[in-house]
Design brief:
alpha/beta, nine-stranded mixed β-sheet
Length: 279
């Protein structure tokens, strides 16, 4: 059982923060969970939320305003950290968009990152942990995220549709092989072989598939987002979905930027979308 660090009453349920020893990472990792009120013995649908660059396991729970809607819909919320902490890799805190707080939800293969920066495997490990230790219905788990976390959510879902039955994203890095953030992360963590990059690029993955999510994928994107044209590239993913026959609702919103004011505005829509898909 993970160690409970703190617990707070929240919208009739409980907001908790945990720490556990991760086999995938080789270090202690923290994650947060919102548990809505439910009868004893009830197993509930659950949502994983993957946060963006510089964030941690607290960011979503304190900024997104999601607990109100999760309590109403009877959904558990789970938010992991965005990278290992305390790996002591030289240079891991030099840049805000690479290293600590910027794990990109992949398994690094280059030294010295490959020892601890294994966030893809960690998410699979954490999914097993919460299904075993919390009242999560393992057949009703979805995933969503923001920016780097939107990238991670799309990749995790596309590679594991049996484990994550629904997926959505806010302003995801939708084609990381084609943007500066992704190129920097992929080169540093995976090396120069672009074939290895494709396994963590949602647009590239989608091009090889045949409508893996028949009930659709939801993406919200602010048109006032300063990263839209250079870093996010949702039109590339949109094209890949059209090629794959994948139903995609890509909603473009005038005036909204990249931050949590944007995310909190459309949070209710995303949780309703997942609740309908997870049953």
């Amino acid at each position: 059982m993970p160690e409970l660090l703190s617990e707070h009453a929240c919208f009739g349920g409980l907001q908790r923060f945990y720490q556990h020893d991760s086999a995938a990472i080789g270090l202690p990792m923290r994650f947060s969970v919102f548990l809505p009120r439910a009868p004893a013995g009830t197993r509930l649908p659950a949502m994983f939320y993957l946060a963006g660059l510089t964030c941690n396991e607290e960011t979503f729970m304190t900024k997104a305003g999601a607990q109100r809607y999760a309590a109403r819909e009877g959904m558990i919320l789970i938010a992991p950290d965005t990278s290992p902490r305390g790996a002591n890799v030289p240079g891991e805190t030099d840049d805000w968009d690479f290293g600590a707080g910027a794990g990109f939800y992949l398994d690094a293969t280059t030294e010295p990152w490959s020892r601890h920066y294994r966030m893809y495997s960690y998410l699979l490990e954490l999914r097993e942990l919460v299904v075993a230790e919390l009242p999560v219905d393992g057949d009703r788990v979805g995933i969503f995220g923001h920016s780097m976390g939107g990238h991670g959510a799309l990749v995790m879902a596309l590679r594991n549709p049996d484990l994550f039955r629904s997926v959505s994203a806010f302003a995801p890095i939708a084609a990381p092989s084609l943007c500066p953030w992704g190129e920097k992360a992929f080169t540093g963590y995976l090396g120069a072989d672009h074939a290895a990059w494709q396994r963590y690029d949602a647009s590239e993955l989608m091009r090889t598939m045949n409508a893996p999510f028949p009930n659709g994928i939801l993406i919200d994107q602010g048109l006032g987002d300063k990263f839209l044209r250079t870093q996010l590239r949702p039109e590339v993913f949109e094209s890949a979905c059209a090629q794959a026959g994948q139903r995609l609702e890509l909603r473009r919103h005038a005036g909204y930027d990249h931050g949590y004011y944007f995310i909190s505005t459309f949070m209710e829509d995303h949780l309703r979308f997942h609740r309908e898909n997870l049953g």
